[in-house]
Write a structure and sequence with these properties.
One of its GO terms (molecular function) is triacylglycerol lipase activity. Residues 22-275 form the AB hydrolase-1 domain. This is Alpha/beta fold hydrolase. The chain has one domain (2-293): 3-Layer(aba) Sandwich (Rossmann fold). It is built from eleven helices and eight strands. It has helices spanning 39-47, 74-82, 93-107, 119-130, 155-162, 171-185, 194-207, 211-224, 228-231, 251-260, 278-293; strands at 2-6, 9-16, 23-27, 51-55, 112-117, 135-141, 238-243, 265-269. It has an eight-stranded mixed sheet with strand order 1-2-4-3-5-6-7-8, with helices on both faces. The chain is globular and about 45 Å long.
Length: 298
């Protein structure tokens, strides 16, 4: 696994496919790692001739774990959110977008197709709005504009979002909690096979566990607030994909995101929740391929 120093931290990354092919930068979501992108999804893009760039966000995977910044109190942060008070975060999504641009710089990539899931979609939105010269196209999947008034997670999804991750010393407990999380937020019409789910979770836990890092990422989302005005500045071709059964980031958030981005195309997948199960990967690849191929001028 390769790594590079960016903005005073280390970012771990992996490149796949033809180095001369059009670059696709994949931004993963809260608490997840570059290995969380389904193999079939990455391989599908590689087979189509793209240079696929995946990376671990700060505080995730093998990138820098910023434990010296402290462990946020998520329940206090939630209360501050309810009352509309300002959040105090160690870093924001803007900083994470800067990490993505720094990675493109380090790899000598002038511009890329930007694809983000959940929190990664938020980072991708910021990148597209603030770094237009580096963005060939934007694809925001199961994400949100952060606009006040949008529906939030279901009670069950909120509980799993705010609960603390067990210590890395208790790996079996971490695995069970993550399995429970994916079952809660997953796609009701496309359930993840149990064996595949446990294999995916086991690989992630073996690679890294950092509960405080997850909390800092979550606080970064809360502190970054409303991006709707920023989304109005996006001028690149944009695709928004969302599941109509998403319990963590409801479909209304995806609909709103598409409305905020000028000319954005919206695709709603029936029965899809807040995950990328095997039964959905083919549909995602088809939508993404159509979007990228129609915007290859860059």
């Amino acid at each position: 696994m390769a790594s590079v120093d960016i903005n005073g931290i280390t970012i771990s990354y992996e490149c796949s496919g033809d180095p001369a092919g059009p670059a696709v930068l994949l931004n993963m979501g809260l608490a997840l790692q570059l290995i969380s992108w389904p193999y079939e999804f990455v391989d599908g893009l590689v087979q189509r001739g793209y240079r696929v760039i995946r990376y671990d966000n700060r505080d995730a995977g093998l990138s820098s774990q910023l434990d010296h910044l402290g462990a946020p109190n998520l329940w206090l942060a939630y209360l501050r959110h309810l009352f509309g008070w300002r959040q105090r975060a160690a870093y924001t999504l803007n900083d994470m977008a800067g990490d993505a641009v720094g990675l493109l710089d380090a790899l000598g990539v002038a511009a890329a197709h930007i694809v983000g899931v959940s929190m990664g979609g938020m980072v991708s939105q910021i990148l597209a709005a603030r770094y237009p010269a580096r963005t060939l196209s934007l694809t925001s999947i199961m994400s949100s504009s952060g606009r006040p008034g949008l529906p939030g997670p279901t009670p069950a999804a909120r509980r799993i979002l705010l609960r603390r991750t067990p210590s890395a010393h208790h790996r079996a407990r971490v695995v069970e909690q993550m399995v429970d999380t994916f079952r809660t937020i997953g796609s009701p019409a496309f359930p993840m096979p149990e064996q595949l789910l446990r294999q995916m979770v086991g690989e992630a836990v073996a690679r890294n566990v950092n509960g405080d890092g997850v909390a800092r990422q979550l606080l970064a989302i809360a502190a970054s607030g409303d991006r709707s005005a920023l989304l109005h500045d996006i001028r690149c071709p944009s695709l928004v994909i969302h599941g109509d059964a998403d319990p963590l980031v409801p479909c209304a958030c995806g609909i709103d995101t598409a409305r905020q981005i000028p000319g954005a195309r919206l695709e709603v997948i029936e029965g899809m929740g807040h995950d990328m199960p095997p039964a959905v990967v083919g549909r995602l690849l088809t939508l993404l391929e159509q979007h990228l191929r129609s915007n290859m001028a860059g």
